[in-house]
Amino acid sequence: MSCQPSEEELLQAGIEKMDQQSWSEAIPYFDRALEQNPENATALNAKGVALFQQEKFEEAIPVFTAAIESDSSIYKPWFNRANANFELGNLKESLADFNMANGLDPSQTDIYYNRGVALLGLEEYEDAILDFDAALQVNPNQALVYFNKAKAQLGNNNPAGALESLTNTVNLDAKNAAAYYLLGVTRMSATGEKEEGCADLKMALNLGYTEAKTWIDDFCD
């Protein structure tokens, strides 16, 4: 009789393929582990991640759901299903899952940023700002977090706060053309800083943000 690999051996082989970013090659190992134990939450979650990495978001969601049904006490499948729903534009479902993940493990800082982006999409600006601030407390050198915080601040009618966040964005990422554009538009429309705003818009255009050209043509010398 041939010796069949164990459930744990199959799981580890799949994870090794994941470490190599061989997403499609990992899935058969997880499937074989699940044949031995359909309730293996780790294998289910890992299979979902492999599908997610291939942008098969609709396929990934029921796999994450099965992982949650197998063990609802671990945050990862809730977090991963939230991300898959976000990619599909299911923002309310995404937010509910982020909330569950956060409740299960508040120390996971990725949850704060991702949930903040979902809240931003739902126009829940104050809650989004709280999440972005929580992410920045852990690591203040995150240009993308500042950029999205600025969008939430603009939505919350706080242009002064947005200008500060956008300044932090471009200080951390000097090639963020969209941030320079938003910085220029906000300066000109909210604070009347025409000279500084035009300089920001020209920087945005130089970095390839073509929408800046209309503002420059209309308002800048």
Write a concise keyword list for the protein shown above.
mainly alpha, elongated
Q: Judging from the principal axes of the Cα atoms, what is the shape?
A: elongated
State the total count of DSSP E strands.
0
What amount of the residues lies in strands? under 5%
Q: What fraction, in percent, of the residue positions are helical?
A: over 70%
Report the C-alpha radius of gyration, rounded: 22 Å
Task: Find the structural class using helix and strand composition.
Answer: mainly alpha
Biggest beta-sheet profile: none
Number of helices: 13
Average residue pLDDT:
97
Quaternary assembly: single chain
Unreliable stretches: none
Output the helix-strand order.
HHHHHHHHHHHHH
- What gap, in angstroms, lies between the N and C termini? 83 Å
Walkthrough of the structure:
This protein is 77% helix and 0% strand. The protein is mainly alpha-helical and 221 residues long. The protein has a domain at 174-220. The longest helix has 15 residues, at 177-191. The mean pLDDT is 97.
At a glance:
Helix content is 77%, strand content 0%.
Give the topology, please:
Blueprint: H1 7-19, H2 23-36, H3 41-53, H4 57-70, H5 75-87, H6 91-104, H7 110-121, H8 125-138, H9 143-155, H10 159-172, H11 177-191, H12 194-206, H13 212-219
Helix pairs in contact: 1-2, 1-3, 2-3, 3-4, 3-5, 4-5, 5-6, 6-7, 7-8, 7-9, 8-9, 9-10, 10-11, 11-12, 12-13
